[in-house]
Amino acid sequence: MPLWRGRALALVGILLVGLNLRTAVAALSPIFAEISVDVPLGSLSIGVLGMLPPVCFTLFGIAAPMLHRRFGLERVLVTALVAMLLGHVIRSMADNFSVLSSASALTFAGMGVANVLLPPLVKKYFPDRIGLLTSLYATSMAVGATLPPLFAVPLTMAAGWRLSVGIWGVFALLSILPWLAIIISNRTRISAPVDVAAEEAEPEILGRVWHSKIAWSLMLVFALTGLNAYSMFAWLPAILADTTSTSAAEAGALLALYAGVGLPVSLLVPLLAGRMRNVGVLIYAGVLFYVLGYLGLLLAPDALTWLWVALAGLGPLLFPLSLVLINMRTRSHDGAVALSGFVQGVGYGLAALGPLVLGVLHELSDGWTLPLVFLLISALAVVVAGSVVSRPRILEDDWVRGTSAEDTVLDDRA
C-alpha cells in the first residue's frame, strides 16, 4: 500500500508528535544562568529539573496503556499534546522554581504518554512500514532535541529566556491539528470508548509482560540509554564549562551537536534493524561510541572536544533501536502497547536517576571525573542486557505453554 494513500494525516501527525517529544528536555540547560536571574537555581534544582523528564515519562508512560484502552489512541494523544502546549506556555511565565518545575512536569507528562502511544500508532496506521515510520519519527525526535540547545542562547540574547523557553509550544499546537482532523473524520470508529469487559485478554497481557525476559532486557537497554542521554542533556554544558575553554554559546552548540548526530542514525538504525536477524552489532556499536566519547572527555576534554561530544552522541543510537524492537519483538497490537508501556514506563524511571546521581557525584567529588566514570560504567552494562534482546525472539512466545522463548526464532520479515 502506498505510504500516503488514505493515511497522509496520520503520517504528518506522527512526525509532528515526534518533533515535540524532546523540545522541552533540551531547552533549559544552555540558559540556566539567564533563568537564574529571575528564578534562582542551584545544583539541587538543576538536578531535579534534569530528572523530571524521565520521572514523568515513567509515571505517565505506565498509565498510557490503561488510558489508551479506555479512551482510544487518538483521543489520549490529543490530550497529551494539549498538556505539552500548556506546560510550555506556563513555564515560560514562571517567576519561581515551583511554577517552573510544575509546568515542566506538565509538559513532560504529556510527552510521557505520547512516548508510549507512538509505537502502537505506527503499528495501527502503518503495519506494512514499521521500520520506515520508526526511522522517520525517531529522526523527527532527534530534530526536536537538536533545535532548542542550538537556538536557546541566541533567542535568549535577542528576546529573553521566556521566549526561548516558550516558543516550542508552537510545535505542540501544530501537532494537535492533524489528530483532531482524524478524530472528527472517524468519529464513530475512534471516539467510542473501548468496551473493557469485552477485552479480557488485555489485562492479562499487561501483567504477563512484567515476567518476560525479552521485556526486561529491552527495558534495561532503553533505561541505560536514557540515563546517559538525560544526564548529558542536564549537565553537558556545565561539564564543558568546567573542563574546557568553551563559552556558553559554544557549549549550547555542542549540546546541539550531541543531539544532532542522532539524526542520521535515527533514520538508518530502524531500517537496518528490520533487515537483521541479530541486532547485536548495533547494540555493541552504540556501547563503543559511548566508551570512546567518555574516555575523550575524561582524558583530553579540551582537545577535540567536538569529537568526544559527537561520539558520545552516537551512543543513543540504542534509543531508536529500542523503539523499533518494541514492534519487532511483538506480534499483536495489544502486545506492542503492553511492551511499549513497560519498556518506556519502567525504563524512564531508572533513567531518571542519571541527572540526580551525576549532580550528587559532582558535589561529593567537586569535579567531573567521578560522574563521567559512572556514565562509562552504565554504558558498559548495556552489553549484558543487549546480549539477550539482540536474539530474534517474540514477546508473545514467552506465554505459550511448553514453548521456550529462547528457542523461538522470528520469521523473516522486514
Produce the secondary structure layout.
Layout: H1 8-20, H2 32-38, H3 43-71, H4 73-92, H5 97-125, H6 130-159, H7 161-166, H8 169-185, H9 187-191, H10 201-208, H11 213-243, H12 248-260, H13 262-273, H14 280-299, H15 305-314, H16 318-328, H17 333-351, H18 353-365, H19 369-380, H20 382-389
Short note summarizing the structure:
With 414 residues, this protein is an all-alpha fold. The protein is 76% helix and 0% strand. The chain is built from 20 helices and no strands.
Your description of this structure?
By secondary structure, the chain is mainly alpha-helical. The protein has a single domain, classed as MFS general substrate transporter like domains (Growth Hormone, Chain: A, Up-down Bundle). The chain is built from 20 helices and no strands. The protein has helices at residues 8-20, 32-38, 43-71, 73-92, 97-125, 130-159, 161-166, 169-185, 187-191, 201-208, 213-243, 248-260, 262-273, 280-299, 305-314, 318-328, 333-351, 353-365, 369-380, 382-389. Helix 4 packs antiparallel against helix 8, helix 6 (130-159) runs antiparallel to helix 12 (248-260) and helix 14 (280-299) runs antiparallel to helix 20 (382-389). The longest helix is centred in the middle third of the chain and has 31 residues, at 213-243. Mean pLDDT is 82; it is low at 188-201 and 401-414.
